[in-house]
Each structure stands twice: as C-alpha cells, then as structure tokens.
Design a protein that fits this description.
The chain is mainly α and about 140 residues long. The protein has a single domain, classed as 3-Layer(aba) Sandwich (Rossmann fold), CATH 3.40.50. The chain contains 7 helices and 5 strands, in the order βααβααβααβαβ. It has helices spanning about 5-15, 20-25, 35-50, 60-75, 85-100, 105-120, 125-135; strands at about 1-5, 35, 80, 120-125, 140. The strands form 2 sheets. Strands 1-4-5 form a 3-stranded parallel beta sheet. Strand 4 (about 120-125), helix 7 and strand 5 (about 140) form a beta-alpha-beta unit.
Length: about 140
C-alpha cells in the first residue's frame, strides 16, 4: 500500500515546486492511490477557503484545483479509504510530545502516522516528514530527493 502526504497530493492539484516530479511519480504508482478522510477534509477545506477568500488571485487556482480533485476521484486515480485514524492520531500525538525542537504541523504529522499504522510506503517531499518516516522504518517514495 502507498500512502501520500498532503504536500504530495496538493502538488498534483495546484502547480508548485514539486508538481512535475509528483506527476511523473504518480504515473508509475498503482491506482487508485488511497487517501484518508484527513486528506479529503484538508484538501477540500483549503481549496474552498481559497475559492471564497478575499485574495483575487486565489479563486482561479482553487477552482482548477477542485476540478482536478473531483476528476481524480471520479476517474479512480484517488480513492478515499478507511484508515484507523484513532490509532494514527494517538501515534502522531506521541511523536508530537517527544519532539525536542518545533514539531511539524499536526495535520502533516498525522499523515506519517496514518502511513505508519497502515504499514504503507510513504510518499513525501517534506524532509522533516521523511525523517520521521525513516525513523519509523517506513519505505519512502521517492527514494531520494
């Protein structure tokens, strides 16, 4: 099983620094790519906030992102799956409490925890999340940044 973090998933929906690499990697992954309800809430909430926000440049980007999101769901590229979110939240909370330095945002840390509790390969471009995943013995994609 392959589980992507939020940044990877968003880079497929909104043009950014890793969008090209993420698109190339997605082509080589088995579909559907299992996403959690956390992905769905974070993605839809973020895009809708930008769609209806006050920044005049963000609605067009958000509209395109929402269209791609819906397309990927409809075409079976993404699939919202059931994960043990209670266990993942508990794991993320445990890691959060143990950080000696500033921890990553909880919503991002949660995705590593979901991958860990599911025993999934973790897809991320975030060096902090990748380190957490390696510390937990998870396989990473891409293998190198």
């Amino acid at each position: 099983m392959i589980y992507p973090d939020l940044g990877f998933t968003l880079s497929l929906l909104i043009k950014g620094h890793y969008s090209e690499q993420a698109s190339l990697l997605l082509r080589n992954l088995a579909h559907p790519l299992g996403l959690s309800l956390a992905h769905r809430l974070q993605i839809e909430n973020g895009l809708l906030r930008r769609l209806y926000g006050s920044d005049p440049e963000k609605p067009a980007i958000a509209k395109d992102g929402l269209a791609l999101w819906r397309y990927y769901l409809l075409e079976g590229i993404f699939l919202i799956q059931t994960f043990n979110l209670e266990s993942a939240f508990a794991q993320a909370a445990s890691w959060n409490a143990a950080y000696q330095l500033q921890p990553p945002p909880w919503g991002l840390l949660l995705h590593v925890a979901v991958a860990a509790t599911a025993g999934a390969t973790f897809v991320s471009y975030d060096p902090v999340l990748r380190k957490r995943a390696v510390d937990e013995g998870l396989t990473l994609l891409p293998s190198k940044l």
